[in-house]
Amino acid sequence: MAQEAVGRPLPPDLRAWWLYADGARFGPHVGDSGWLIPPGFVPYSIAEALKIRRLWMDVAREIGPLEQLEAFVDAENNRPAGTACHTWLPAWMPVATNHGGGNLFVDLRGGPQYGCVMEFYRDAGALAEPAWNDVAAMLYDIADRLTENEAQLDQAGLLYWQ
Predict the structure, then answer these.
(1) CB 44 within 8 A of CB 95
(2) What average pLDDT does the segment 40-52 reach?
(3) Burial class (CB in 10 A: 0-12, 13-18, 19+), 148
(4) What is the rounded CA–CA span in Å between residue 12 and residue 39?
(5) What is the band of 28 on the pLDDT scale with cuts at 50, 70, 90?
(6) Contact 35, 160 (CB under 8 A)
(7) What per-residue string of b and e applies to 7-18 under the rule 16 or more CB within 10 Å gives b?
(8) Can you give the residue ranges of the Knr4/Smi1-like domain (predicted)?
(9) Cα-Cα-Cα-Cα dihedral sign, residues 123, 126, 132, 135
(10) Omega of the bond prior to 39 within 30 degrees of 0, cis?
(11) Residue 65 pLDDT exceeds 70
(12) What percent of the chain clears pLDDT 90, i.e. is strictly above it?
């Protein structure tokens, strides 16, 4: 479903993660699971990821003239994964939210950093280097940080990063 929507293959580690745990439960507050991904992101389910991806693509289409946007997006979609961009690209698959205009996404463009995890913010785009080389590296980092007691549980049992 997700792979067909994007029109690009999903990395095996992303597929495995979504098959094992399809996101986190959202409640009336931040998230029923707390901030599972440092520094403060909550994983999307596959359905939520596809919905948010469509939303970001709609926002990108509203920003500029269509004829200019199409040429720009085509050029950016052909740049290597891990390359910064101010506008949401169809080759990006969101995987988590901070509930404040920020998303983690997996970059599905080609190149040596295919599958890297980057941050995107509505006001700035994706400007920084990849946060992780891939989803597996992100999950290992979370496990290491939990082992090092870099997170705490609140009284409701929700996870927060220090």
Answers:
(1) yes
(2) 91
(3) exposed
(4) 24
(5) very low
(6) yes
(7) ebebbebbeebb
(8) 2-139
(9) positive
(10) yes
(11) no
(12) 43
Q: CA-to-CA distance for 42 and 100, rounded, in angstroms?
A: 11
Q: For residue 31, what pLDDT is reported? A: 46
d(C-alpha 84, C-alpha 53), whole Å: 17
- Alpha-carbon gap, residue 96 to 52, rounded angstroms: 10
- The rounded Cα 38 to chain-centroid distance in angstroms is 12
Q: 135 Cβ partners below 8 Å, 6+ apart?
A: 11, 13, 14, 17, 95, 106, 115, 117
pTM: 0.87
Contacts of 66 (CB under 8 A, 6+ apart): none
- Token pair for 106: 């997996």
